[in-house]
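hey so i finally got around to running the thing on that chain from the lab meeting. sorry it took forever, my laptop kept dying and i had to restart like 3 times. anyway pasting the input first so we r on the same page abt which one it is
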Amino acid sequence: LAALERQVFDFLGYQWAPILANFLHIIIVILGLFGTIQYRPRYIVVYAIWTAVWVTWNIFIICFYLEVGGLSKDSELLTFNISRHQSWWSENGPGCVRKEAPMSGIKGLDNHSYISVIGCALEYRYIEVMHSSFQILIALVGFVYACYVVSVFTEEEDSFDFIGGFDPFPLYHVNEKPTNLLFKQTYL
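ok and heres what got predicted. didnt touch it at all, straight out
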């Protein structure tokens, strides 16, 4: 549900890189759930590997919005340089008041306006950082759960006994008669 919520807000902000990452995440989560329900450890292993990638992606998003290592939250990196859109939260955050001023006099920009945002209770970059931090927390819990489920499934596969071959005390025991009894004549 958290990934779906994040997907909605990334769609509202036209942030194409996070939209694609969220879409892949949703598909892999569904695959992991299917693997858990259908007892398919390979699907769960794929989910566990994806959680490592997902944590890395969210760390990148945190670094992006906190402008760590030369990254700039004002760059068009998350929109693939298609547009100048930013996070939806930049204009619609808690307590934000949005003011538009039409840009008249500049040819070709008749439908555009200058938008200023004031009075935000929390800057949008911190909201995005909280979203990514929450995704990391969920991914780490999912990773631990996936490892546990895979270990349970593989343990069940190893303990399956076809004809009592691995079990030192089988549930059933075939009593074989000694070979000398097979050659004895039976008297009536």
